[in-house]
DNA sequence: CCTTGAGTGGACTGATGAGTCCACTTTAGT
DNA sequence: ACTAAAGTGGACTCATCAGTCCACTCAAGG
């Protein structure tokens, strides 16, 4: 990605990425052309290739990174401070709300499929997102343990991985079926497991 | 889908669907052309359109249905008789094995994204698959309850939904990162929850 | 003011790939 | 055997779209 060196250039580059993200959410990757993006971003063909010399793939990757950054940001401040039952509850609601609002768009999943598993860049973005996400869940579980709210024997690694998997699956089922039942079940089930461990502690 | 009326015709039609499924798994939907499919299936362009007058979309949908049928079939006979701890364990291993072997191909997910959320057919296939899958998990959980192995208070609906979500998410994380940790965590966590409920019963 | 390079517009090209068409062959029923 | 319908081959068309190219404008530093 060719970085812009003037304010005007940076603005154009940002307009392209954000415009592209919009169009991609609306139409899906496979139905979006560079010309759609160009139109939405009020840019010209040459600007696209000026800032993303690698062409469509490079632009798509930039959009994927941009979307990935939003995923965690949208869960804050809740995700960052999961140290009480109330904060877990607020986080749960924030996740449900975010994905129900997003509806049947899965920018990241779609982008990933298009750019292809082969490209190392795409895989790195997703891997890093998952790593950070799970770490924050695990930190939250350990915070409950530290506060004496959850048994010290609670398997944080396994449960945080399972919870993350449940969220991903819940979201992808919702994409396909339009129904958020599974997402809610995964979240509630994860939290219920924590509470169960608290009850056994008492 | 125009159904064939002779044995030869049926053979050709089957060759097309299965050949298409193969190529799609290998190359991914967005990099597969009708010509790739035609070549693999030893068919000609006119045959493709003879049996799938709706063109590529219709063919893709037929492949999606074919893949969906395999998903549950591949988990049998285990999935159909989850009435003991041993059968749950065998099923768990079968799922992990199947998806690890499949690697980073997600025929169904990719197909769905390509055909598009808008088409009612695609959505129906996924919805029905999820419904059946969850039902079999729930049946298994109730079988354990009936056998006195799991507490009657165990929330079968929520847990089967969460387990299904965990599997889906585990698989999709594995697609993106190449790592099956999350899938295993989701499965083991679900089964562990059942066992926990058994311990409380004792 | 002039120069330099970043930034911009949009016409053009070339490849690709979905879908059409028609001539030909095979199959099955009478 | 005859014939009608089913099945088959593959050349051809036509639209689309990523990517190129070049002429132009603008802003900043000297």
Describe the structure.
The structure is a homodimer of 202-residue chains. The first copy, chain A, is mostly helical and 202 residues long. Chain A folds into two domains: 7-53, Homeodomain-like (Arc Repressor Mutant, subunit A); 65-201, Tetracycline Repressor, domain 2 (Orthogonal Bundle). In chain A, 74% of the residues lie in helices and 0% in strands. Chain A has helices at residues 7-27, 34-40, 45-51, 56-73, 85-102, 107-115, 120-146, 156-177, 181-201. In chain A, helix 1 packs across helix 2, helix 4 packs parallel to helix 7 and helix 7 packs across helix 8 (156-177). The longest helix of chain A has 27 residues, at 120-146. The mean pLDDT of chain A is 93. Chains A and B meet through helix 6, helix 7, helix 8 and helix 9 of A and helix 6, helix 7, helix 8 and helix 9 of B. Chain B binds a DNA duplex (30 and 30 nucleotides) through helix 1 and helix 3. Chains A, B: This is AcrR family transcriptional regulator. Chains A, B: GO terms for molecular function: DNA binding. Chains A, B: Keywords: DNA-binding, Transcription, Transcription regulation.
* Assembly category: homodimer
State the shape of chain A. Answer: elongated
What is the CATH superfamily of the largest domain in chain A?
Answer: Tetracycline Repressor, domain 2
Number of strands of chain A: 0
State the name of the first-level CATH class of the largest domain in chain A.
Answer: Mainly Alpha
Whole-angstrom Rg of chain A = 20 Å
Low-confidence stretches of chain A: none
Name the biggest interface: A-B, 48 and 48 residues
Share of residues in helices of chain A: over 70%
Secondary structural class of chain A: mainly alpha
Main sheet attributes: strand count, strand direction, barrel closure of chain A: none
User: Mean pLDDT score of chain A, rounded?
Assistant: 93
- Number of alpha- plus pi-helical segments of chain A: 9
| Through-space gap between termini of chain A | 56 Å
* Element-level helix/strand string of chain A: HHHHHHHHH
Q: Count up the domains of chain A.
A: 2
């Amino acid at each position: 990605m060719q970085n812009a060196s003037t304010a005007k250039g940076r603005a154009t580059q940002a307009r392209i990425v954000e415009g592209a993200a919009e169009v991609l959410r609306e139409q899906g990757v496979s139905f979006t052309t560079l010309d759609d993006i160009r139109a939405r971003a009020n840019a010209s063909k040459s600007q696209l290739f000026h800032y993303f010399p690698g062409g469509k793939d490079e632009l798509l990757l930039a959009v994927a990174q941009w979307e990935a950054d939003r995923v965690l940001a949208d869960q804050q401040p809740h995700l960052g401070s999961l140290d009480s039952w109330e904060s877990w509850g607020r986080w749960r609601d924030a996740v449900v709300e975010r994905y129900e609002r997003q509806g049947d768009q899965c920018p990241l999943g779609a982008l990933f499929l298009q750019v292809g598993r082969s490209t190392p860049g795409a895989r790195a973005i997703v891997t890093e997102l998952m790593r950070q996400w799970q770490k924050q869940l695990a930190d939250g579980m350990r915070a409950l343990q530290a506060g004496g709210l959850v048994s010290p024997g609670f398997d944080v690694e396994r449960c945080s991985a399972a919870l993350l998997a449940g969220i991903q699956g819940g979201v992808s089922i919702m994409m396909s079926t339009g129904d958020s039942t599974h997402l809610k079940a995964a979240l509630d089930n994860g939290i219920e497991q924590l509470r169960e461990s608290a009850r056994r502690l008492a």
